Amino acid sequence: MTKQHNTSPWAWIPTLYFAEGLPNVLVTVVSVTMYMQMGLTDTEIGLYTGWLQLPWVLKFIWSPFVDLYRTKRWWVTLMQVLLGASLAGVAFTLNTTWWFQGTMCCFFLMAFLSATHDVAADGYYMLELDEYQQSLFVGIRNTFYRIAVIFGQGVLISLAGLLQRYVSDVKAFTWSLIFYGLAALFIMLWLWHSYILPHAKADADRPSSVSQVCQGLKDTLVTFVTKVPFRSFCFVLLFLLFYRFPEALLSKMTATFLQRPVSEGGLGLSPIEFGVANGTVGLIGLLGGGIVGGWLASRDGLKRWLWPFVCAITLPDLVYVYMSYALPSNLVLISTCLFVEQFGYGLGFTALTLYMLYYSQGEYKTSHYALCTAISFLGLMLPGMASGWLKDLLGYQHFFVGVMAFCTITFIVTAFIKLDPTFGKKD
Fold first, then answer.
1. Given this model, what pLDDT does residue 11 score?
2. Which CATH homologous superfamily contains domain 9-197+207-414?
3. How big is the CA angle at 385 (ends 250 and 252), to the nearest 5 degrees?
């Protein structure tokens, strides 16, 4: 039975983007803490977990299949049930003698499924909502995406620490329990979205031949490059690659910095303290930043708030410089610093999301958005792989100072992009 088209976006946007964000944080962030607890060095963590981001970089290759075969709704629900299976695979392999190889394989599969889910979910979002609704709900979708991030790196890590207290600190077993629970959660999300997602009129079922799909890939790449003059495209490419360059360096090392002992230059937070600081206070900051960013952009347009958003995503990184030198032990102070950083990120990420939606307008919007996110992930992947080595070379203090210096790159690449002043504004 086909669902009515009057289903409120509030019924599915929060859960859809929670489901989009959770596998990503499990692969890119939670795995960092898990492998750290299992004995890997920061250099090993940065290198091995960095490779796990490759499917998000290459997803544009198979995005035409998602665009041209079946419906976005079908792809969303299929990926969610398969993600549940991959989570169960991590849980199972953790207690084997080949746990590292097994979990890496399952995480890579999870990354591939999650990347495909991203393509389908973002395409569905653009097909179901008009331009104004896209701008209005961008803060909500980013907020719930980041809630998933906070849930992963806050609640789940805290829960793992709590479980380790009651099972004689057997880390593999506790993480196995966590991932079995996550598998059950994804099955529930699959059931919910199978029921609630509207059947968008524009989301038509289009059976396609292999030749049509290959032609679609060719057309996608050509139109993506040629929709603006070549010089402007180069600026777009640089913006997508380097807008999050400081975040690329920070993303893995902040988790280890907060949890490594003081003797190694970290703050020595327990898993529970780490979870509280990120999952409670950080969540409040993120919620505020994401919602405020979406509201401001929908009221005045992205161009009006672009530079304040750029400042918001870069300047709060100063809190890590402060914490690496001061080494505060007060959880309230640490949480306040994380609040500032997360609020700024919520604002700043709004700009990137809206710009990718802006550039993806027109034919092949799903595939073009996938290309935008793939390029952005490449900008996260390569610096992230080297971040552990760089941190081990410089130490946390000099590493965070270097990150602040690299923030200038974000300002430079932003200065050259062009925007329609009316984009995102309500008519």
1. 79
2. MFS general substrate transporter like domains (1.20.1250.20)
3. 30
